[in-house]
Amino acid sequence: MKYLRASWARFRGMFAGRRADQDLSDELESHIQLHADDYVRAGLSPEEARRRAILALGGVESTKEAYRDRRGVPRLESFVRDLRYGGRTLRRSPAFLLAAIAILGLGIGVNSAIFTVVNAVVLRPLPFADADRIVRLWHTPPQSTFPGMRTFSLSPANFRDWEAQSQSFEAMAIYRGGRPSLTGHGEPIAVQSIRASASFMPIFGLQPVVGRGFTAAEDDESAPQTVLISEAFWRTRFGADSSIVGRTILLDLAPYTVIGVVPAPSFLEEVQVWLPLRWGPKDRSERANHNYRAVAKLKSGVAVATAQAELDAISRRLELEYPADNKDWGALVLPLHEDLVGDARLSLLVLLGAVALVLLIACANLANLMLVRTHSRAREIAVCGALGASRGRIIQQLLAEGLLLGVGGGLAGFAAATWGVRWLLTIFGTALPRSQDVAIDSRVLAFTTATALVTGLLAAFVPAWQLSGRDANTVLKLGTSRGNSAGGDGHARQALVVSEVALALMLLIGAALLMRSLSSLRAVNPGFDAQNILTASIGLPRAKYPTAEQQVPFFNRVQERVSALPGVVGAAWIDTIPVQNSGSTQYVVPQGAPPMQDSERPTVAVRMSSPGYFKVARIPIVAGRDFNAGDVEGKPGAIILSSRTAERFWPGENPLGKHVTLKMMSDEPREVVGIVGEVKMGSLDAGIAESETAIYAPLAQFSFGGSQIMIRTSVAPESLTGAMIAAVHSIDPEQPVLDIATMDHVIDESLGQRPTAMKLLAGFAGLALLLASVGIYSVLAYTVRQRVREIGIRMALGAPTGSVLRMVVVEGLKPTLVGVGVGLILAAALVRVLAALLFGVSQHDPGTFAGVPVLVIAVGLLATWIPAWRATRVDPIDTLRAE
Amino acid sequence: MTQFDRNAVWQGTLSLMVLRTLLTMGEQHGYGIARRIEQTSGGLLSINYGTLYPALLKLEQEGLIASAWGVSENNRKAKFYKLTRAGVKQIERDTKQWETTAAIMARFLSPAED
Q: Touching check for A597 and chain B: CB below 8 Å?
């Protein structure tokens, strides 16, 4: 307390100023008078008395000095003086100031922007109470049929058994998404819905803002049709009207009573309405159909591993109990945060590493600028040293300047980052998990401040150390002759160039590897022609189109209208377009298969397509025929197999005319009428698993009301969006059209955040190369200026321009070459980090490891050659006279 | 006469001496405090008076003493210091600590008994 009070007093004392000084002078004067009075009484003359009094005091000025030190905080005061002095010096060279702040601002800006994203997505916990206890539950599918697939949706019966038999969880909830159309409130729109058990909202600690949430009774089909509205949707669509509770809304033309308004959990922000589970006995006993997702909350103190072990045991029991459906189906407990962030984590951390390298290069650049600048102040500094300033004081003076630059750069960087974060969110789009949580918080501020200060100090430290260590005598003796650049800071400059080049090279190699991965990904043949395709989804409401009888004519008419649009080459329906990593996977019974458990039967991707699909998608028909207008309900079932499916079922035999039963949908054996090429159903970077080999059935024989249209165009596909929607609305003006996208876009989306992360990394690497080449250039330009006299003499003595040029360039290129060597070694060690992000290119791809150094050396050569060439253009007489 | 390292004593105890002096004498100016300390020490301490002022400032910053301008007995303008309540308490604490320290040191420095 005492110390706190004293510290505060001293801090205030720093600003005490003249009045306090006057007060002290008065007090000391009064002291001297009082003392002198005593001496006078003892018989001394007034003059002598005063002299002795001052002597006894120990000198007025030194007393004042000691007193002032105690009054304020001397170290802080001298530092503040240094800052003021530094500020004045910097203001005198605005060009340097501007360059320094621009370089630092750029470096700090990209760091702070990327850190903002990393902080929100990777570091910050999910915005729920006890977020660390919330987990996602998955099935793990049999690896024989789903090789490499780690997670799979849940089946209701298995979920119910997990819930009933486990002890690790406080609550479990099951849910699935839907896209019903909302009518009766202005324009009909398709809304994002989730059908969830009553336990869902409580897991996230979310309370209804109006009305009530679901109750356990609503998990059963006997409950009336009710609906909850998400808060955001309630505000935008229903004007935040509380009287909505109790009213009825139409979803897919069926009436639902609104019972409340709830805040959607941030990772399901897009969900607009919530429906109760309303399971019947048939739903509850469904074990083979895996089409639900699940979340759960661990009991307090229960580790994920414990819960995992428990579900493992339960899964094994279920396998024994229901071998037909459950053989090799396991369970996976994943913390929700990990599940949501997934591989974005690695991409983001790699980006953060990349921008850190950019910042280091920026820092080296600034250090170099400061070195050049302080070199011209060498005399000033040497004089300070000769007059008794300690090395520490001189360093402090120079560091103060660095700190000021850091603060300036930090402010510029922060401004750039606030803009940069918005830009990052736009380019990442939906590929970035948790993007709704991205915001600048106190941690970002702290990060930016720390980065700015450390960078500023680091940049100032090199020149400070260099210059302050110099012997004052040497510097002063050098006098005005600037012909000799003192060895010390020459080495420092070269070291800076070496590190800049090495860092830039590392980044470039990383970026080049990722760019090559991206182009190999893009070059992967998906089995169809993705160019010039527009896609969209249609979900027909049951109330209006209850069966295939109403649905199929709708699909046919849309296909006709859209195909007739100008610019359209052809259009066809497919229930799930490829490379989406979604769609139906079913076990099937090929003709001649021995009797076995259903779970051991071969699984394939089952797709419903309309006639013309293979032509539109340009999937080759290898044998047989496409579906035609005759393959409709009531006619014999027709199917088309992909060639690998046929090979799996009947190796070496002619598959045409053989039969397959799609047992999950019907018991009728269906005749193989055609064989087509293989198509990637999953992501481009994976091979085609056996479960992804396909069987196509006619949409006209298996319509479930939802399908996607694929339109091949002869013009830019997105330009047909309006005409396509109009064509649909000409048939049913109330039918929403969803997910309108070009196939190229769909493919990019399927690659997640990778393309964006790769492009960003390439951008940062380009930035690094630019900064490094500026660094090389400025160092060389400076060195050449230092040697202008020597060059002048050489040329005056008759040295040919070419040989002088060669000398300077060779000398100047040395640090670049060393940097390339160092960078190559570091890069070879560091690429391991990237391994998981690479595709179709080896970590130590020789092309990249040879090409990037050539590029860097070429840039280095250019940056060296320009100043060298300029030096040889100077008239030797001028340079000699200048000294 | 005993050798006496003035500095060592000075550093740690000047504050306590000032406080004690103010306790005995009441309000006093810097010069008066200095003279009083010199007298009390029986001439063993002769102060470079200037060192007193930073010490007074420190005590004032710590809130143990307060100061105000006044007039001395021989009609000179002078800055007078007086103890605050915190200062009085500080004397008690410091005295106790000093006595303990002195007692411990005394045991070490007295001739060994066995």
A: no
Eight-state DSSP code of residue A691: G
Taking a C-beta distance cutoff of 8 angstroms, is the pair A827, A506 a contact? Answer: yes
B7 vs A: CB within 8 A: no
* A654-664: average pLDDT: 91
Residues A409/A103, Cβ–Cβ less than 8 Å: yes
Q: Which residue of A has its CA nearest to B59?
A: A6
CA-based nearest residue in chain A for residue B79: A27
| B50 contacts on A by Cβ (under 8 Å) | 57-60, 62-63, 66
- CB contact (8 A) between residue B78 and residue A34: yes
- CA–CA distance, A847 with A865 (Å, rounded to integer): 27
The answer on pLDDT for B9 being more than 60 is no
Longest dimension (CA), chain B: 62
Going from the C-alpha of A228 to that of each of A278, A319, A470, B9, the distances in angstroms are 14, 37, 76, 81
Closest residue of A to B71, CA-based?
A30
* A27 interfaces chain B, CB cutoff of 8 Å: yes
Residue A166: C-alpha distances to residues A132, A158, A171, A334, A369 (Å) = 19, 12, 10, 16, 65
Residue A3: count of CB within 10 angstroms of its CB: 9
Q: Tens of pLDDT along B11-70?
A: 557 888 889 999 988 889 988 998 888 888 877 776 678 788 888 888 888 889 999 998
Distance from CA of A394 to the nearest CA of B (A): 28
Mutation choice for B interface testing from A2, A7, A30, A52 by most B CBs within 10 A:
A30
B29 Cβ under 8 Å from any chain A Cβ: yes
**3-state per-residue secondary structure call for chain B:** CCCCCHHHHHHHHHHHHHHHHHHHHCCEEHHHHHHHHHHHCCCCCCCCHHHHHHHHHHHHHCCCEEEEEEECCCCCEEEEEEECHHHHHHHHHHHHHHHHHHHHHHHHHCCCCC
Query: Could you tell me if B22 and B83 are in contact, meaning their C-beta atoms sit under 8 angstroms apart?
Result: yes
Please check the confidence at residue B8 and state whether its pLDDT lies above 70: no
Query: What's at A536, amino acid-wise?
Result: A
Q: Which residues pair with A190 in a beta bridge?
A: A181
- Between chains, do A58 and B50 touch, taking CB under 8 Å as contact? yes
